[in-house]
Structure formats: structure tokens, C-alpha cells
Amino acid sequence: AERCASEGKVDPLAANTAIAAATRAAGVALQRGTRVLGITPDGAGYALRTTAGMVRAGRLVIAAGAGTGALLAPLGVAVPTAAEPLHMNVTEPAAPLIGHLVQHAERMITMKQLATGQLVIGGGWPARAGKGGRPPEVLRTSLAGNLGLAVHIVPEVARARLLRSWAGINTTTDGRSVLGPVPGRPGLYVALPGDAGYTLGPLVARLVADHMLGRRPELDLEAYTADRFRTKAPAF
Fold this sequence. Notes:
By secondary structure, the protein is of the alpha+beta class.
């Protein structure tokens, strides 16, 4: 067993809203519902063909999760990304039960309790991939199995009513992050968290942003670039 006193947890709905507000305040233009159809070199930069028209940029960060590999492939860069639909659950507020992240050495389970008292329950249970661009769907078998295991480990969880279940897309490569500049493609960067769900995203973003702004990242990115698929890299 292990315990990390600084283990973090976040409400992704609240976090996404806060991040969007902060980026707008910084002058960033967000184009929701716009899909990138292709990327081509364009002089000293790149041209993006999107569902809202052409966009050109001198420098480009690809942070498209499971779609990263498909966007990089036409540029001659191989990053084998795959979509892994998973689901999560959150309960109504409950009395304090869990003061830290709970995982199981042999079973698929993660549990943590937010400041609101809500229990967030997950652990990598599969969801059904959506068709035709639709979002993934929660599987009844995964829902029952995930919650049943949570109650088995912490019986008091059975007293809390389930508030919401949802499915999302985790991205798998080989369990490691892909980040930093793309060798041979000046001005092109990748920000792809490893197999760690939402939590690793802010760290990956900060590391790539530091590199782009000329600041020294707190971690050497060389081992985690797209080139690493031709070499061995440490896990991250």
C-alpha cells in the first residue's frame, strides 16, 4: 500500500469552466464545436483546415487527446494514440468518509471525497464508444460492477445516493505522456497526458507552455517527445 499526502482531486465541470474563463480573460479566442480536419505546413507555420474555415498559426500545440495521432500522421509524425472510453460516478454529498484517494491493488477502483462531501467513484471501468461523433455511453454492467466494488471496500458508500454517471474518453499510448516540441517540425508541439485521466493535464500544459515561452521546464522534456517511440523512455 502507499499514500500520497499531496494527492489532488478536482471537479472537472468546475475546473473546465474556470479554465475557460481564465483563458478568455487572457485574450484567448475559443471556438467551441469546431473540429480540425487536417494540418499542413504553411511557410514558417501551419495551416489548419477546420469546420469553421482555415486557421493559420506560426506555432501550434496539438492537445487533441485520442485524436492526436490522426492529426500528426499526415505530417509524418507517428504517435499511436487510441481512444479508451471509461466512465465515472459521483454521489450526493455524504458525511466525511474518505480523507485521501482510495485504490485497490488488484481491482479497478478509485474513490475520493470532494470538499462538498460528494464521492467520486471510478477506476477504469469501460464505457461504450459513441457512433457518428456522439459521446460515449455508460454501460450498465460497468455501473453495477464499479459501484458494487465501492460498497464492498467502503460499506458506508451504500448510504449515499448516486447523483450522476458519465462517460469520457481516456487516451492510451503506452501509458506515458507525449509532450514538447516535435523533432523536425519547427513550431509544432504536442501536449498529450499519459494514461492518467484528467489529473495530469494541467502539469503537461505547464511544461509545454514553459518550453514555448523560453522558460526552463521543471522536467527535461527530451525523453517525452514524439521521438521517444523510436527509443525507450522512462514512465511518467
